[in-house]
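FORM 7B: Structural annotation worksheet

SECTION A. Query
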Amino acid sequence: MTSSTTCCPKVGATVTARWSNPSRPRGSIVGRDDRGNRLDVPRDDRPALVRRPAYDPEMFGNFAEGFARFMGTARFLAYMTVLIIVWLLWNAPFGPDRYRWDEYPFIFLTLMLSLQASYAAPLILLAQNRQEARDRVSQDQDRETTARAQFDMEFLAREVAGLRHGMGEVATRDFLRSELRTLLNDLADQARSGEPTTGAPGAEGLRPP
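SECTION B. Predicted structure
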């Protein structure tokens, strides 16, 4: 005896997962606007804590080059020498007591010179870097110009060689003179011998029948 059971659909409430959102269909991708509300997604629109100062690199580079160029002149050396001498004489023991601001051992003067050196070194290095960049660009341009000139010279050399090869196959003046002289001699010999002068030069004359 065979028995069969009838399959019937399940009854009861539908189980909903805890992580699913009823307002969003399952399997949808998290949008960019929803990332700010999630804790497992880092925010990419975080403002910078400290803003970087904005400046014009070209203007700053020109200032550095001008400063380095001025420091390499005799005028700057004379100004610094006069300033140090006046500073030492003014703050020396035999100077005015009331208006001294940097007495011996001249700590403030040492600090000023150290500060000047600390700022001068980076500015000089910056000017040197800019000069090296310009020299590199100039060398590249010179290299391209040299290569172009060499290419032009090779082209002209090939053209001159072609012209020489072509001129070698052209009859020269001496060759024409020698051929004309030979032709005249042949005509003179034929005239003396009484042979007809018709026909090609140097060939046997054709006698009439």
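SECTION C. Observations
The radius of gyration is 51 Å. DSSP finds four helices and no strands in the chain.

SECTION D. Sign-off
Analyst initials: ____
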